[in-house]
Amino acid sequence: MAKAIVAIGGGQIRTRGTADIDREIIRLSNKEHPRILFVPTASSDSARYWQRFLEYFGKFLKCKADVLFLVNEPPSARQIERKILSADIVYVGGGNTLFMMRVWRRLGVDKLLKTAYENGTVLSGISAGAICWFETGITDSWAERLAPLPCLGWLPHACCPHYDGEKDRRPSVHKFVAKGTAPETLALDDGAAAHFVGRKLVRIVASRENAGGYCVRRSGRRTWNVRVPSTQRCSRSVLRIRRDRSLRRARRCSGGDTQSR
After folding, report:
1. Does the pLDDT value for residue 23 go beyond 50?
2. Where do the domains of the chain lie, and which CATH numbers do they carry?
3. CA-CA to 174 of 20 to 30 Å: which in 51, 202, 212, 221?
């Protein structure tokens, strides 16, 4: 059974800015109206975030949406297990990644998500919900200060969201990679998503023009970007996955075995 993770670099639900990507996440579930579980731990279980998610994924995209609140009044271990393991898609919201990781590990949510993933549940998320699946995430969980954070480690190397959306992201990623405090990093623009099958990067999917993903690598004291080819603005043509030479070169940043140049 294919194990899929879709990591979204950024965007706004309320403006439907990632709708093309989100429709592709739904398609990956192989169901017309999949059960989608929203996990807003990183936002401290924001009720407003959940309502926007429900209106968007429930009413607009026609999914069967549910939510897993874990912060104020966590459900029982059995209820948490039932919700996670019955979902076709798990979607993790944005916010404070460090806080989210601590809550998940305390409640055993990380282990349940791994079980769901192994069983074929599509895992996805935006911002904090994108970087959590990687070995390392570049996050501002410390009072606006960007720094690398150890994450779940199911996807290789590091990931940084908002690469074009926040001015400090690009120079910080290059600094961390150059100093060796972060490994090779997959940097995602707002409106761009990385689709993984297992630990292999399959493609970058974009919901807005010019949004992309970049492999940031080090050679000696220098770093550089390798842009990963993207399927712009998902449509029916997105089903034809591009497997050109550039994608194969870029895969080394995300678990492939061919070196980028």
Report:
1. yes
2. 4-254 (3.40.50.880)
3. 202
